[in-house]
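[step 3/7] inverse_fold.run input=structure_tokens len=161
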């Protein structure tokens, strides 16, 4: 699924729709990877998702802590930013296995820094520059990711398949 994102507000709307799709029957656990160059909107997308899910406080990019969990009534979302990851072996100390075993949703920026330490993504969201705006490409990698994408597409207003 390709989504044109002409401005930051459009990126926020995509984040809102992704959050709504998560709460609309998502199968746990779920790994969503966020790819793209610096400034493409990965953290803005996560921020919009967390706001839609009900987080009222600050949404910090976990660039230095690597991992930031957010607890909601029926869902735990873990935001990882692996930009400063020095070695994929460092992920072992973050307890990712516990998050997967607990059925959490993991949103991972810079997943390529993890090497083979992460399982295949259920959904890959690639953001990139497109003229003066951005473009998002969403690709499912599992039945759970496909179901998420179908729920997202059901509420689509600006997507091109």
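[step 3/7] decode complete -> sequence:
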């Amino acid at each position: 699924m390709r989504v044109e994102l002409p401005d930051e507000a459009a990126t926020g709307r995509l984040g809102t729709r992704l959050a709504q799709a998560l709460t609309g029957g998502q199968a746990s656990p779920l790994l969503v990877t966020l790819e793209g160059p610096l400034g493409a909107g990965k953290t803005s997308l996560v921020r919009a998702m967390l706001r839609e899910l009900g987080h009222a406080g600050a949404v910090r990019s976990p660039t230095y802590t690597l991992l930031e969990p957010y607890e909601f009534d029926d869902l735990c979302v873990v935001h990882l930013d692996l930009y400063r990851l020095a070695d994929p072996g460092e992920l072992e100390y973050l307890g990712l296995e516990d998050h997967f075993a607990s059925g959490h949703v993991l949103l991972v920026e810079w997943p390529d820094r993890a090497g083979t330490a992460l399982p295949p993504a259920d959904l890959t969201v690639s953001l990139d520059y497109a003229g003066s705006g951005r473009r998002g490409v969403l690709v499912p990698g599992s039945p759970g990711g496909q179901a998420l994408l179908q729920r997202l597409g059901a509420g689509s207003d600006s997507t091109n398949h």
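[step 4/7] annotate
Residues 2-154 form a domain with the Rossmann fold fold (CATH 3.40.50.300).
The chain is about 30% helix and 25% strand.
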